[in-house]
Amino acid sequence: MLKNTYLFKLSGSHDLEYGDLIPIEESDTIPFVIRRVYYIYNVPSASSRGYHSHRNLNQVLICVHGSVRMVLKTPDKTEEVILNDPSQALYIGPMVWREMHDFSLGTVLLVLADHHYDKSDYIRNFDQYISEARKYFAGEADSK
Ligand code: T46
Predict the structure, then answer these.
(1) 26 φ, ψ to 5°?
(2) DSSP letters along 39-87, please?
């Protein structure tokens, strides 16, 4: 996967007759203190969302119903991930460009975040993103 991203499995209780339940607990399940939760729904299939990066935010995305195609970018790589399983979670850390496409009808995308909403943490211009991300990832490599 791209730097600052990974997929992981959420464990829970599964029962063919009784149904399924997945608990989410910070530190055990989620690798940060959860300070904000939001969900995205009612997205027309022709709409795409995102087209930005965050400078500092850590997030975990869980598609609790339906399906969405995530396009993730760093300066040198692009990757696509389909989220269509409520027991699968996608971690996205700082400085990863994200786009959301092809929402199926009724999709609900749950997002857990480690900071309150902060407009100034967003980079919405792709050229600006590339410029900041190159410095960010070069700095990370230097510190190793
Ligand atoms: C992200 C992807 C996965 C708020 O007022 N509070 C909030 O916590 C959020 C997330 C958004 N908003 C407002 C800001 C905009 O007026 O809701 C509106 C839609 O937000 P935005 O266009 O940023 O939505 P997406 O779907 O493009 O991006 C969202 C998150 O903003 C972003 O952090 O990573 O989901």
Answers:
(1) -65, 155
(2) EEE---TT--EEEEEESS--EEEEEEES-EEEEEEETTEEEEEEE--TT
For residue 111 the two structure tokens come to 């997002």
| Nearest C-alpha neighbor of 88 from the set 1, 8, 23 | 8
Distance 38 CA to ligand 1 centre (A): 9
- pLDDT tens-digit profile of 32-89? 999 999 999 999 999 999 999 999 999 999 999 999 999 999 999 999 999 999 999 9
Ligand 1 is surrounded, with C-beta below 6 A, by 36, 38, 40, 49-50, 59, 98, 111, 117
* Closest approach atom of ligand 1 to CA 59: 34
Q: Is 52 assigned a catalytic role?
A: yes
Which ligand 1 atom sits closest to the C-alpha of 61? 3
User: What is residue 40's DSSP assignment?
Assistant: E
